[in-house]
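Quick start: read one record
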Amino acid sequence: MSDLTPELLLHGYSMGVFPMSEGRHDPDIFWVDPRRRGILPLDGFHISRSLARGMRRTAHHVSINRDFAAVLDACADRPDTWINAEIRSLYLQLHQMGQAHSLEIWQDDTLVGGVYGVVLDAAFFGESMFSRRTDTSKMALAYLVDRLRAGGFQLFDTQFITPHLASLGAVEISRAAYRQRLHSALKNNGNFTVEVDQSDPQLVLQRITQTS
């Protein structure tokens, strides 16, 4: 795939496909359209006792868009990654356009976990997450779900499903069912940067469990 632009990337998302590469050193990018699609229902996020305990007891703070590039690079910092140089550049451009966002977990001034994704209307397309301390990627997802709910989002697309995501409530749906949900979400507005107090983990946990 050549001459891929941020605008074409967004068009692909609106059609239900997303880009990947075979590896960080592979220059080729291809569209992916899974037969079975992973989503995380925003009213079905599962918080285990250990995760809730960790959020309450572990000193940390949360930010959004504080260091998008660092989150992107941390997600790519693994033996096998689909984030090559072109994909990295494209997502940085999407971030500058306000169409890609990151959520960070910090301990003191150290970035220990995070997640990033693309926003189109009321759909959030989760791209990748990372963890440098116990459960910090799960914490990031909990805060992300809280924010997406507050911002009026209708669809949290995880693309694929893993045991990690399934343990948090993610499910697989058919391609046709996914397209229906996407079509509905694209008719509405979501606000990722909505003002929501996430300084107290206990309040976040209460909001999530009250509607799960």
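The radius of gyration is 16 Å.
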